[in-house]
Write a structure and sequence with these properties.
The strands form two sheets. The chain has a nine-stranded mixed β-sheet with strand order 1-3-4-5-2-8-9-10-11, sandwiched between helices. A two-stranded antiparallel ribbon has the order 6-7. The chain is built from 20 helices and eleven strands. The protein is elongated. Helix content is 54%, strand content 12%. 37% of the residues are buried. The protein has 645 residues and is an alpha/beta fold. It has a domain of 160 residues.
Length: 645
Amino acid sequence: MDKDIQSKFEVAESRVYDAYPLTPPEPTLHEKSLQLHARMLDTRQPLDAEKKSAVWVVHGIGQQVPFATLEQVAEGIIKTIGDANVVNLLYREVKVDKTVLQRVELTLQKSGTQRQVDIYECYWAPKTQGLVKLRNIIDFLWDGGTRGLINSFASFQRALFGEMVPFKIHLRTPAHLLTTLSVLGALMVINAIILATGASIAGLGDLPERSLVSPLTVVSGLASAVAITFGAILIIAEATRPLRSKSFWGYTVRNITWFGIAFTIADLVVSAAIMGIIFWRKWNPAWLHGGAPYLQTMANVFIFASLILVVLSRMHRRWKLSGPKKVSAAKRADAKPGWFGPTLFYLAFLFHLAVAVGTLAIVFSAWHGDFATSLVGVTILSVRAEILSAFGALHVEGAFHVLARVFRWRGWVWPFLAIVSAQVRLLLVEFVGDVAAYVASNKVDCFDELRAKIKQLAKESLSAVYSAKSHDGEAFEYEKVCVVGHSLGSVIAYDTLNRVIADDQISTQTDPETGKKFVDGPAQIVKRTPVLLTFGSPLDKTAFFFSVIGKTTRHIREQLAAVVQPLIENDRIRGRIHWVNVFSPSDIVSGSLDFYDLPQWKSDPAQASKCIQNEVDDDALVPLVAHVDYWSNKKVWTELLKSVW
């Protein structure tokens, strides 16, 4: 390659394509016979056209920005295949019929052969901005959770390939659902009581009583301390995680973070229960009231300490990224984590754990009277005395007084609660909100028009890629079109591919020998789609939580839904399109896709090729954060590169 793709780039001139109609008008009888004869002879091959591949990708949930997905896909492919195998890199705007698209053009080489790969994105994020409210999300989560519980204990069935197929649900499914609903209920209780307490302090209400404000403030402060210290663990884990999971450090990061999740969930549920009893039963225990100053000070200390660790972690990561030495991805993957990053991570975990240990110690002290209370006080005074003697009493004494006032101030609880509330709201609105707007279509709701716009946008974009006519002949521009979707984007990609296949099938003729329709229509969608690649996909969960099983044994609604999904209605189509699903055990959104295959296929070697190829990305190892780590790992792009040639 003659130029450095990391420092130079080239914008090519815009290009306009003629387009083949993907759903042509009904042909005459003579035209039907000509089409049938041509199809039987299989003469419709690309004529004198360069073999090109397209990658059409749909981004997932969150605050996506234009071209970010194109950048991530191109970076992933280049990193995986290597800079030396990228012959050319161009950026271009194209127009296919009336649809304007932007693309990244990569010319790749492998084993002496070259292939142009054009990358397109379906950018749908602006469609949902500001339309989903918090109450819609809560309704969505409750509806999905309760439906999931019903499906866990009932006979869950799916309409697949002409039959109603029962699936056995693992016992962990209802346990996970109950945990999720418990956390959602706890957040609702805590938020409601905090609002009422704030109103009471401001003189806008009389609930709770003034005497209950102090214990409620203390408990909510401890809950925010647990949440913020866990957030510090998560941020530092992502900043210091290894690029490869099969190492002691990788296992440590994953397991400690999972422990933090479990502890945070337990704390939220217990805190909500205690606050509910205090608020509604007017419970004001002496041990909680007596330990309030210590508990509040301890919570503030560990919150500030965790925030300092987060700042140090960010600075350390920025310093590593801006370092003068360029290190290859392979060397970075094999490199040891050093000492600074792991030290910050372990300290963050200790602070998280210390909130629980300190709470138990202080509550025990207040419960058992002066002796235990004085024991805690003696410990604090002893540490203080050692520091005074080591650094000089005069200066440190003044610092202690200042810090003591800072950490004892009760007002800190409100900005800390605001931080937690803002992050929870951001997570729900920006991430779960997109899912709620697109997925919850099993009942009449206010998002029907929004869903229609997203589906139309996706269909126009993918149809333009499939229908582009080659400049070099009367063939299609792309020999292969790879359909890729991340997270909710995998649901959109699945729906859109089904839609364009169904449209192509409408004008498909019938084989006179078998009496069945040909697999391909005029646009040859099935033939030209080598792979449907999903990663971080919630498709199994949406099928389970929001199934449209009716109350009767005929299941007409579920069977009608399968009509517009050729990928689960026609096994001949499934046999032609390879479906690869990449997931991580640390990603709570995704998982193995099992509800789109017939169970007997897996045990039948002749049918096994139709099954979804579920692949684990072990390098997406940090719980919760794993949902977006696929983009920076090689697993997805390795699977994609297998299909572009």
